[in-house]
Design goal:
Elements: E1 6-10, H1 15-22, H2 25-31, E2 36-42, H3 46-49, E3 57-61, H4 65-68, H5 72-83, E4 90-93, H6 98-107, E5 111-114, E6 130-132, H7 140-149, H8 158-162, E7 187-191, H9 203-213, E8 216-220, H10 224-235, E9 240-242, H11 248-257, E10 260-264, H12 267-274, E11 279-283, E12 297-301, H13 323-335
Parallel strand pairs: 1-2, 1-4, 2-3, 4-5, 5-6, 7-8, 7-10, 8-9, 10-11, 11-12
Helix pairs in contact: 1-7, 1-12, 9-10, 9-13
Length: 336
């Protein structure tokens, strides 16, 4: 490992996956204090990584633009080849997709990633010369830390992960967030959206939770449809305020200041785990072993069974979860 002085991590998306991988950084730097770590990420998620003292450089790519304009692939390849001049000793593809494997191989010859039995897009393994074994249906956080630590010759244990330091950092956040935090009530964030409608807990049940807890509930949102839900919630409860749209840097700051976050299985919800803030993650069609359940980070799951290898976007079982279960968990976390 002595020869690994410059490391590149390729983890392009999505927000929750990036957060789950970031937990490894503090242990890599503890083991190898002098290692230089660069991270390659989709431009839209770069703020998640910003201000992290364990990352030397964040390099943004925009592979998503290729879907709209196929010629953009030329620009992106040129950009990545330019970064290859950084002379990385090792590149770790922590994503495990063909596109991330190609990015990794363009950066350097020495590439590590998951083996063919540990990956969804098996062709990606053709680009790796160091391969890591961990079943695809294992805990997502365990998978992320293993693919990042094993090629570096050490292990990050579950105990270490449970004892982590908060690892999301912010700077120059939008001061408007502090107008929504109250000193005379508990502050709770509601994360009401996600990438699939079947992962979204009904807004009516969020409303019931707020009206039962009678604390200061702040709704965050990212899309127009989520904004409509947020404003509906605000309009139907004296305990709910819809936040204006804020960037990821300011969202990290807000999450770090609250007493509890309740949300769907999506990136902003996983921020709470990364910041050691109490949370309740509501699961429907996605597997609960995407996160670590701790004394302050709780899980509520619907009754449906989940196939890790073929998630069912038409599984709307999240709607059947009784909000009384969430209210009980929330009261336990808020009041002990």
């Amino acid at each position: 490992m002595n020869q690994i002085k410059k490391l590149a991590i390729v983890k392009l998306s999505a927000m929750g996956d990036i957060i789950h991988a970031m937990v490894a950084l503090q242990y890599i730097k503890k083991k190898y204090p002098n290692i230089l770590i660069d991270w390659f990420v989709e431009e839209s998620f770069s703020q998640i990584l910003q201000n992290n003292p364990h990352i030397n450089n964040i390099f943004s790519v925009n592979l998503k633009a290729i879907k709209k304009n196929k010629f953009e692939i030329i620009n992106q390849i040129k950009l990545i080849k330019k970064y290859s001049k950084n002379n990385y000793d090792l590149v770790i593809d922590a994503q495990g997709l063909i596109k991330s494997a190609i990015v990794s191989k363009l950066l350097a010859k020495n590439v590590a990633g998951f083996d063919k039995n540990s990956i969804r897009e098996k062709s990606a393994t053709l680009f790796y010369n160091k391969k890591v074994t961990i079943p695809y249906d294992e805990n997502t956080i365990d998978r992320n830390v293993k693919v990042l630590s094993f090629p570096l010759g050490f292990e990050i244990t579950s105990k270490m992960i449970l004892e982590k330091e908060p690892f999301l950092f912010y700077k120059d956040e939008n001061p408007i967030i502090y107008d929504y935090i109250k000193n005379d009530k508990k502050n709770i964030i509601f994360v009401i959206g996600s990438t699939w409608e079947s992962r979204n807990y009904p807004k009516e049940k969020f409303l019931n939770i707020a009206n039962e807890l009678k604390e200061n509930c702040i709704v965050v949102w990212g899309s127009e449809s989520e904004k409509e839900k947020a404003l509906w919630l605000e309009g139907n409860s004296n305990y709910i305020k819809a936040l204006p749209k804020i960037n990821l840097n300011s969202l990290k700051a807000l999450v770090s200041k609250v007493d509890l976050l309740i949300g769907n299985d999506t990136g902003p919800t996983h921020m709470a785990w990364g910041l050691n803030i109490p949370s309740i993650t509501i699961f429907g069609p996605t597997p609960i072993n995407r996160i670590y359940q701790t004394s302050i980070n709780k899980i509520v799951k619907s009754n449906s069974k989940v196939n890790h290898f073929k998630l069912n976007k038409n599984d709307f079982s999240i709607k059947e979860i009784d909000e009384k279960i969430i209210i009980k968990e929330a009261k336990s976390l808020l009041y002990g």
